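Human: My hope is that you can spare some time for a protein that puzzles me. I am handing you a single protein, as its sequence and its fold in token form. Could you go through the record with me and say what the backbone is doing? Take your time, and here it is.
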Amino acid sequence: MATVVLFHSAYGPRPAVQAAAERLRAAGHEVYTPDLYDGRTAGTVEDGMKIKDEIGRDELLKRAITGTATLSAKGVVYAGFSLGGSIAQNLALADDNARGLLLLHGTSDIAEDTTVDELPVQLHVADPDPFEPHDWLNAWYLRMRRAGADVEIYRYAGAGHLYTDPDLPDHDAEAAEATWQTALGFLAELG
């Protein structure tokens, strides 16, 4: 099975992250959940963004790289929720050993000179999503394909941004279950 590094959202290492990791472990995957916030969690997205801004994007990436350095040689699947998805994307695109990229609710910009060798990528996103608008996602998809990634996008009509987190108002149980079933199939293929 796959070795997965699962990064939390701007809300921090909430129970939903551990529940997701346990779900993946129950399917036979080895899962790591780096804590980029030193145990801090947020009750609102605004508070989460304050923590993110206080730590700083460069420091978050440094913590993510440090937390995964010994795993890279294993050929990991990078995964993440929203902000964690953008961090996972940055690491996966820079890691020649990456086995795949699973994005839940978030993406990141892509440098023009980025190239990957058919990296399998799966994105699950609300439709519409205020943080991932259609124009952005269309351009992101084209840039990822141009970079050499093998990309699948799954959109969930009517779901809120972090619809897989049962403790948030965005939660959509049907969309979350469909996401996990599809994601587990993706990971099984990579494992």
